[in-house]
Write a structure and sequence with these properties.
By secondary structure, the chain is α+β, with helices and mostly antiparallel strands. The chain has four helices and ten strands, in the order ααβββββββαβαββ. It folds into two domains: 34 residues; 140 residues, Umud Fragment, subunit A, CATH 2.10.109.10. It is elongated, with a radius of gyration of 23 Å.
């Protein structure tokens, strides 16, 4: 049973705990909570990229990234880092300077791809977007992606990039094929 004296100590301990949490929050600008809960938006620390803030235009990356959502692009990131599967990337083609696209890396050099009906299989698994829906590929897209392959394997230094749109009409590797590393000009962070 709590006595009046014990209640005062309990309230004092709770007040001190609350003050400590607030101090941590303001001192670390909330990063302590982000680090504890695994926030993926924490800033990257390196000397090879410059941060550019911009807004997503279009719906090709929804629901991962929404139209008019502000994002940070770590431009030059891939000058020092190797691309990884599921990296959201900023693309810029030499044939379209100044026009940038945001897509997600779905497959890397060395990955095996094949088609099962109109669905893409990467290393034996059906490729799906973040909502778990299988991507669809037209016959033209399938040809575009399988012709350059040797033994159904993507050439090192090339990447398959897709948006979130599952239909075959999406503007991504289904239209322009594999991209080279020098087209990956930045990493996107929401």
């Amino acid at each position: 049973m709590l006595t009046l004296k014990n209640k005062k100590w309990l309230y004092l301990a709770l007040e001190l705990l609350l003050i400590a949490i607030l101090v941590c929050f303001f001192c670390f600008k909330g990063n302590i909570f982000k680090n504890i809960f695994g926030d993926k938006t924490k800033p990257l620390q390196d000397n090879c990229s410059a941060i550019e803030k911009s807004f997503i235009k279009g719906v090709s990356m929804e629901p991962s990234l929404s139209n008019n959502q502000e994002v940070s692009g770590y431009m030059g990131y891939y000058n020092c880092h190797e691309p990884k599967k599921n990296d959201p990337v900023v693309l810029e083609f030499k044939s379209q300077p100044g026009t940038r696209f945001v897509k997600k890396i779905m497959a890397l050099g060395g990955d095996k791809i094949e088609f099962k009906g109109d669905n893409l299989m990467i290393n034996g698994k059906i490729a799906k977007n973040s909502e778990g829906k299988a991507y669809q590929f037209s016959t033209r897209s399938q040809g575009l992606l399988t012709i350059p392959l040797e033994n159904k394997t993507i050439t090192e230094g090339y990447y398959l990039v897709l948006g979130e749109v599952v239909g075959p009409e999406a503007y991504d590797s289904r239209v322009f094929g594999y991209v080279e590393k020098d087209h990956l000009i930045g990493l996107v962070s929401p």
